[in-house]
């Protein structure tokens, strides 16, 4: 089962168990979410490819005391209806879970309209927004259950890239998975496995981030290695987490390297694995960036 499939299965399970859950769809993953529509069509609605309307409908559910879950592809959930998320959920102080698929370029064969490396940065501009980035289906299940009724707008980002094994996540969203003394590496969500492979042979502390907004500053400050070098490996635009990392470590000297999707339009077409290799987000590319940084 993929992260996408697990997210849908967990949403359907919560929908059946909690009568306050409402699901708003935009023509995506209908086969996986159809059981919710059959169970109670009054609170499971497909609005079609009208993502801004989907957010507005979800806000209406929230105002009536429901826990809305909105689902579609990342650029159509984080960017196209950004104003609706900002005003309908952020400004009004409402809670809702926004579950995306396709980031950053899982739909790379469809071109730039379906790319979303800027999704976390865009939603991060809205006060109170929480962003979680699981790396496996089991982590997806746990994070959906932990956030669907948390009372704040929460963006859960799934992708086709996954880690081989789930991690027992520590409270706060930043989990130490390896300790060293000469380098600190924060690996986000599905990039954990390739990050661990990239730092093989280095004396590095590796911290696994699944909640990236807000970042677990207390754990970062407590667990960071003594050396000033810090690397963030992030599956979205590089530098997205830089301000939070710098603030968490403002009490000490720090050299920061952000390894993520370069801030440029992607004009080539192809699957995610090809884009990762071309953009330096495979094991080889991450290793080369880190080794040049610490040399």
What does this entry show, briefly?
The chain is an alpha/beta fold and 295 residues long.
What does this molecule look like?
- This protein has 295 residues and is of the alpha/beta class.
- The strands form two sheets. It has a seven-stranded mixed beta sheet, sandwiched between helices. A five-stranded mixed beta sheet has the order 7-9-8-11-12, with helices on both faces.
- Strand 11, helix 10 and strand 12 form a beta-alpha-beta unit.
- The mean pLDDT is 96.
Features:
295 residues, alpha/beta, Rossmann fold, 2 domains, 7-stranded mixed sheet, 5-stranded mixed sheet, 12 helices, 12 strands
Number of helices: 12
Lateral arrangement of strands in the main beta sheet: 2-1-3-4-6-5-10
CATH superfamily of the largest domain: Thiamin diphosphate (ThDP)-binding fold, Pyr/PP domains
Task: Report the structural category.
Answer: alpha/beta
Helix coverage percent = 25-40%
Radius of gyration: 19 Å
Q: In whole angstroms, how far apart are the ends?
A: 40 Å
Provide the β-strand percentage band. 15-25%
Catalogue the unreliable spans.
Answer: none
Q: Looking at CATH, which topology of the largest domain would you report?
A: Rossmann fold
Chain-averaged pLDDT = 96
| Morphology | globular
Number of domains: 2
How do the helices and strands follow one another from N- to C-terminus?
Answer: HEHEHEHHEHEHEEEHEEHEHEHH
Assigned CATH class of the largest domain: Alpha Beta
CATH architecture level-2 label of the largest domain: 3-Layer(aba) Sandwich
Main β-sheet, in a few words? 7 strands, mixed
Tell how many strands the DSSP assignment holds: 12
């Amino acid at each position: 089962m993929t992260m996408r499939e697990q997210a849908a299965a967990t949403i359907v399970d919560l929908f059946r168990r909690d009568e306050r859950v409402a699901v708003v769809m935009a023509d995506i993953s209908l086969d996986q979410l159809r059981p919710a529509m059959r169970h109670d069509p009054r609170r499971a609605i497909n609005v079609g490819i009208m993502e801004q309307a989907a957010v507005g409908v979800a806000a209406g559910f929230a105002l009536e005391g429901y826990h809305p879950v909105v689902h579609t592809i990342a650029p159509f959930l984080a960017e196209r209806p950004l104003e609706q998320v900002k005003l309908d959920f952020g400004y009004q102080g409402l809670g809702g879970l926004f579950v995306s698929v396709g980031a950053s370029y899982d739909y790379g064969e469809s071109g730039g309209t379906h790319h979303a490396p800027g999704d976390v940065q865009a939603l991060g501009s809205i006060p109170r927004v929480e962003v979680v980035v699981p790396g496996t289906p089991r982590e997806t299940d746990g994070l959906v259950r932990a956030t669907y009724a948390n009372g704040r707008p929460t963006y859960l980002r799934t992708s086709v890239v996954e880690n081989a094994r789930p991690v027992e996540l520590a409270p706060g969203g930043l989990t130490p998975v390896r300790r060293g003394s000469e380098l600190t590496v924060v690996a986000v969500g599905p990039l954990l496995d390739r990050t661990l492979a990239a730092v093989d042979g280095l004396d590095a502390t590796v911290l696994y981030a699944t909640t990236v907004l807000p970042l677990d500053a207390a754990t970062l400050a407590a667990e960071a290695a003594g050396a000033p070098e810090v690397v963030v490996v992030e599956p979205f635009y590089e530098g997205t987490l830089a301000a939070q990392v710098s603030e968490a470590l403002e009490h000490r000297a720090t050299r920061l390297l952000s390894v993520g999707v370069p801030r440029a339009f992607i004009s080539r077409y192809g699957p995610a694995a090809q884009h990762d290799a071309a953009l330096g987000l495979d094991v080889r590319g991450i290793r080369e960036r880190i080794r040049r940084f610490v040399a």
